[in-house]
Design a protein that fits this description.
Elements lengths: L1 H14 L7 E12 L5 E15 L2 E18 L5 E19 L7 E18 L8 E16 L2 E9 L3 E6 L5 E6 L3 E10 L5
Length: 196
């Protein structure tokens, strides 16, 4: 009886073991919440190949695209009108530290630094004569967890402000600083480097 119980426990432990693999990655979708006043949320898509220096520490390259929008007051039909949209594309070198080697749940914290391309001045999505692209340095801090082959997390994206030129209601060309920082809430799928 005791031998049977021991064999059963060992079998379960082996089923939950992870095989250490150097290369891994993940693909994620999520919500981008801009920190600029009056800006509305958008969506994001990210891919991140990684290399594990050890089982609890990996480095990678996060490639992410995010689109956020700013809406006017409702029109005569009660629908919100898009005033302008902003696109952000980033290439961030990252490092993640995992607190456990548990197969079922692996919480992590991470950080990164890299470059961000900011596309501004997209009016009404179909009029982009004032669109400009600016490259800035940027960084992230993040936390989350991995459950088997699924990954979830929240990231704060540090991106410096950019100068934006636009025509106000009186037709006067106006300049202002636009905040680019945003918070990403993500859910994704991990491939490689996980359980056998």
């Amino acid at each position: 009886m005791a031998i049977a119980a021991t064999v059963t426990l060992n079998a379960k432990a082996q089923d939950n073991e992870r095989i250490f693999k150097r290369f891994k990655g993940d693909v994620s979708l999520g919500y981008a919440a801009p920190l600029a006043t009056g800006a509305n949320g958008g969506f994001l898509f990210a891919m991140e190949p990684k290399y594990a220096l050890m089982d609890q520490l990996s480095v990678g390259l996060r490639m992410e695209g995010a689109i956020t929008g700013k809406f006017k007051q409702d029109d005569v039909y009660g629908d919100a009108e898009l005033e302008n949209a902003k696109g952000l594309g980033s290439y961030i070198a990252t490092a993640d530290y995992y607190f456990t080697n548990n197969y079922s749940f692996r919480p992590f914290v991470g950080a990164g630094i890299g470059v961000v391309r900011v596309l501004t001045g997209i009016d009404d999505l179909d009029y982009s004569s004032n669109a400009t692209t600016i490259t800035k340095g940027g960084g992230i801090i993040r936390a989350g967890g991995e459950v088997k082959h699924f990954r979830f997390g929240i990231e704060y994206n540090f991106i410096p402000r950019t100068d934006v030129n636009y025509y106000n209601d009186q037709g006067v060309l106006t300049k202002e600083k636009s905040k680019n920082a945003y918070v990403g809430i993500k859910l994704g799928f991990c491939f490689g480097g996980g359980p056998r």
